[in-house]
Amino acid sequence: MFAVDSNRPRPTRLWALVRDGVVTAIKSALARQPQPFGPDAGRVVEVTGTDAQVGYLVDRMGNVTPRENRTGPIPDGRPAYLEGPPVPAIASGPLGRALASAGVMPTKDPDHPANWSKNAAPEQKEAADGNADHPAA
What we know:
1 helix
């Protein structure tokens, strides 16, 4: 038996067209071909290590990342692999389904360290004279 080359997958590369730090289009090309957007397309990056989607953000080195509650492009000097602002976690199980069907969503992420009760600022009590009570050291 002879090996048939037509059954082997041909190596391809993914290319992303980037405008204002956001992926606007994605095309694939064979590994030996140049990028498929043409010479006047603007900023085109080769996508490696992940599957990019339209709307993903791109840093200055060409790394892509999901938007993750980011409102603008990634600032210069900041890599794409750092996580974005915390996304509130949705409750799981029957309670989560009931809350989601009622349209009740969390407003802050309970798992973020800033929202832990032990990291909360201590509560200041008022003294009888109306001023904040600060015991003498």
